[in-house]
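Schema walk-through. Below, the input block comes first and the output block second. Nothing else is stored per chain. Lengths vary across the set, and this one has 347 residues.
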Amino acid sequence: LEQWQTERPGRLFAGKLERLVDDVEFRVDLGDAWTDPAKIKMTRLPVVVPTFVEALPSYAQSEDPLPPVDPSSLQRTVIEGAALKLSIESSKPLQHARLTIQSRDAADASQESQFDLIAVDKDRTAWRLDEQATPFAAVLTPLRFRLQVLDDDGLALENPLSGTIRLKADQAPRVSGGLVHRLILPTAKPEIEFSVRDDFGVSALGGTVQVVRGEFSRVDESTAVNEMKFTVDRRLPLRGAMSSSEAELRKAEAVRYPLRRLQLPASGAYVLDLSKLQLTRGDQLRITLTATDYRGDLPPVSSDSEPLVVEVTDQAGIVAAISEADRRSQEQIDELISRQLGIGETP
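--- output ---
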């Protein structure tokens, strides 16, 4: 105890406990005097335990279970578009519980909103957030939040519960294509081999054919069709994945969108009808595949493949290309034989 400086020195003394962590019983001894024992009953601060439950958006739901996450963790990563359900348990009855959410708008300006939780029991120790009117209804941007409560004793948390919500971005779809032949006849129906994949689903697959007319093209430019879009609504199995007997039974199957997570990656071949383009020898085609992902009620994202370049020729051009390929193959065979026999090597 220390003497309290007053106009009447020696009569008043004061003492202080730095931090009270529990109820205490005390007695004061001052010289030959003492007091009767007395008690100090501590009024405790409320202790609050939050519980978060992530509700996946419909497009991301599958039979694959999510990895376990501590439901009370304040640092969370959720799938874009997921809903977060928040409930809390308090050690004391509460007057109110309030959640403050900090987000950024389209102009990247910070903004705060406050939302009161609702008591769900008569003791007012269990509360929940009605997330429908909050950013937790569908998390589309990273969020910061803090939770503060006020109990019946007028006490709040010493430090508000603070946390962050990060996004697990839904990646854009990936699509690639290939052609067996890079030279085609004007009336050909080439097969485009494709492969498409995405994190959660594909809602559409198609592409664009652009025509670069040759120098000697006789097609009337005023009526010429120089661009054509197509949709992959039917697909053939890839030839490389089948035996010769299976290839004879090769039939196109309908593609039913959306292709969901467990159906991906998907591959196949699509027959492209180019008849309306009025192609002639010397024309060049640039074929680009476009895949659009599936995001339920959220706006989808599309991505393109690398363009496939095809040259249009006639039968003479095809024969010449085959002959050139045969000549090169023969040269490679001759070179291989010479190496095996040691022809041309110096002793």
